[in-house]
Amino acid sequence: MSSLHFCPADGWFGDPMPLWHDGVYHVYYTKMYHNKKVGWGHISSTDLVEYTEHPDPFPCGEEGTPTSTGCVYWHDGKFHAYYAGKDFTMLHSESEDGITFTYPGEICFHRPLDTYRQDRHWRDPFVFYDEGAKLFRMVFCAKGPENGTPDCFAGRIGQAVSPDLKTWECLPPMDLSGIAMTLECPEIYRDKDRWVLIYYWHETRFRTAPTPQGPWHRGSVISPDHFDFMAARHMYDGDRHLLVGWLPRRNCDCQERIWGGNMLFPRELRMEDGNPKTQFAREINRVFSVRYEKIGVDTFEFCNDGWTVSENKLFASSPEGGTMAWVPDLPDSCLIRMKLSFSDLNGQALILLGTHVGTKDSPVTENGYQIMIDPAERLIRLRKHYVWDQRNDIAVIPYSFGEDRTISLEILRHDGILEVGVDGEQTLVSRLLSDAHGGLALSVQDTSVCISDLLVHIED
Question: Which element (helix H / strand E) includes 285?
Answer without folding.
Answer: helix 284-287
